[in-house]
Each structure stands twice: as C-alpha cells, then as structure tokens.
Design goal:
Elements (H helix, E strand, L loop, with lengths): L2 E5 L6 E6 L8 H15 L3 E5 L6 H8 L3 E6 L8 H9 L7 E6 L6 E6 L7 E5 L12 E2 L6 E2 L1
Parallel strand pairs: 3-4
Antiparallel strand pairs: 1-2, 4-7, 5-6, 6-7, 8-9
C-alpha cells in the first residue's frame, strides 16, 4: 500500500493524504490534483514540491492554470522537451555542469534544468516558479572532504 500527502512545510502538518488504490484509471496527475484541492479552493498562490514520480509537464501546467506553482525533479519520460534531452545525448554533461530550457508562453515561465553532480545520468528539475537564470550559492557536503563545500 502506498500513501502520499500534502504537508505544510513549516510544521509538517498533514493537510490531506491519499491512498494509492492501484486503479489504472487514476494517474499521478489526478492524485496530485486531489491532494491540492484545499489549496485551489483558497484562491491564493501556493508552491508545492513533488518528487520525480509525481512531477510532469502536464501536471505543472494544469496546476499553474489554477494558481498553484510546482517544482521538483522530473523523469525524462514525463514531457521533457526533446530539444534538451537531445542536447544532453549529443553533448553529455560534465560534473557540475548544467543546461536549461524555458517555455515563456505561460503567465509564469516553465523552466527545465538538467545538471550532473554525483549521479552519472544527471538530474532533471522542473519549475513553474523559478527562473534558471537566477543565481544561488549552494553549500553541500562532499564525500571524503572535511568541511562543507561551496
């Protein structure tokens, strides 16, 4: 049995949860929509974070139309632009390298970022609330290094 929920990020309070019924008629997009119904009814902008199983371009766009922004890692078979995937195949990413694509046709742009760090295949990140051109410093631990690296 698989369960998933909508939790408030500050306190961890469970707003709503659902049980995966293994019904083939219910896809991941429908599960995400069921969970965010309370947010849509409030008619305020919210940001939700999803993992790669529940993230798709279709889900992001449909939530964006309802005023809910989504970001999270995404699987390659969930609507990623072929231009980015083809570019990565032609020129594989080096460690620490990233590439991005942006679809500006919506009220808020849809950004897809590919980067390679410790995963040999790289990671894809989809967002309706982040611009790939915004810079940020990330601190992380490096295996075998004594301190946190920038």
């Amino acid at each position: 049995v698989k369960s998933f929920g909508l939790h408030e990020s500050g306190t961890g309070y469970c707003v709503k949860f659902a049980i995966d019924e293994r019904d083939p008629a219910i896809n991941t997009r429908k599960y995400v929509h069921r969970l965010v119904e309370p947010l849509i009814e409030l008619e305020q902008p919210y940001k939700i974070v999803t993992d790669r199983y529940y993230t798709s371009v279709d889900t992001a766009r449909s939530l964006q139309d309802k005023g809910v922004f989504l970001y999270g890692t995404i699987r390659r078979d969930r609507g990623c632009p072929t231009s980015l995937l083809d570019d990565i195949k032609a020129r594989p990413l080096a460690n620490g390298e990233f590439r991005w694509r942006m679809a500006p046709s919506a009220p808020t742009p849809l950004s897809l970022i590919a980067w390679r760090d410790s995963d040999k295949n790289g990671t894809l990140f989809l967002s309706t609330c982040h611009k790939p051109t915004d810079a940020a410093e990330v601190r992380r631990r490096v295996r075998g290094a004594p301190d946190v690296q920038k």
